[in-house]
Every structure is written in C-alpha cells, then in structure tokens.
Write a structure and sequence with these properties.
The chain is mainly alpha-helical and about 150 residues long. The protein has six helices and three strands; from the N terminus they run H-H-E-H-H-H-E-E-H. It has a three-stranded mixed sheet. The longest helix has 27 residues.
C-alpha cells in the first residue's frame, strides 16, 4: 500500500460513522432501523452494533496484537454468532453508533501515528492468512456495511 493509498483508506475509515448516519437517516425517521432486508441479513441496527463490536474486539485487538507480539495468531470475528448472543436488534442505535465512532476514531488515531515499519508488522488472520497492519486496514474497506435504504 502506497502512502497515498494509506491516506485514502484512513480518510474512508474516518468518514464511515458520518456515512452510516447519513445512510440510515431515512430508516431512523421511519422507525425502520430494526427491519431486516431478508431473514438472513442484518438490520441497520444490527450492522451498527456489529461494526462497533468488530472495531473494538476485532480490529482494535488485532492491531494491538500485531504491534506487541511477533507473528501473532489473529482469530476470526464471528459476527453472526455474536449478534445472536448479544441480541443486537434490541440495542440502542444512537449508543451503538456513538460507541462505534469513538472506537473507530481511537483506532484511526493510533494507526496514523505508526511508522511504515510498524504498519508492516505481520501476523496470521484466521481464514485469511498472513496479514500486515496495512493490509488489515485495507480489509476494512471490503467489509463496508451494506445499507437497506
């Protein structure tokens, strides 16, 4: 990943909470944040709860392990199981979005301060294989939330 690509990814990561707010405004106004587009898909509320937990327990933990351990094993994040266990569709949307935004801001702030050598520290992500922090940040773009607007 080039410096320009890194800056593009960082910008995308920083803007995601505001993008989610914009994408869900109509759903919130219509009381449809818990509506699932299909039985096996997440509602907007479940998406935001998933992103909050993934940011804290997935990306935050992975980045920390990559920075402090040599070639750490990075477990997968079973979002569907966690969503069921935590009953995401019964949680508060505003709280979940605020908590996601705070966790995201902290992770972005930390990664922006890393040197190129630190960004190239690697580990093994379950289901993916060898991965660096640079690559981990790029994966976030692949998991951009789908919206039901």
């Amino acid at each position: 990943m080039t410096g320009e690509e890194f800056q593009e990814v960082v910008k995308f990561l920083e803007e995601t909470p505001a993008s989610i707010r914009q994408l869900t405004a109509e759903l919130a106004a219509n009381g449809e944040l818990t509506r699932k587009p299909a039985p096996d898909e997440f509602s907007a509320l479940e998406q935001v709860c998933h992103l909050r937990d993934l940011e804290r327990e997935g990306y935050g933990v992975r980045i920390s392990k990559l920075l402090t351990e040599n070639l750490p094993s990075l477990p997968d994040f079973d979002g569907r199981r966690i969503a069921r266990e935590r009953d995401y569709n019964q949680q508060d949307f505003e709280s979940a979005l605020q908590e996601f935004a705070l966790a995201r801001a902290g992770n972005v702030r930390m990664t922006k301060s890393l040197s190129p050598e630190e960004l190239n520290r690697s580990g093994v992500l379950e289901g993916i294989g060898a991965i660096t922090i640079y690559q981990l940040l790029g994966l976030e773009r692949l998991t951009k939330p789908r919206h039901a607007v």
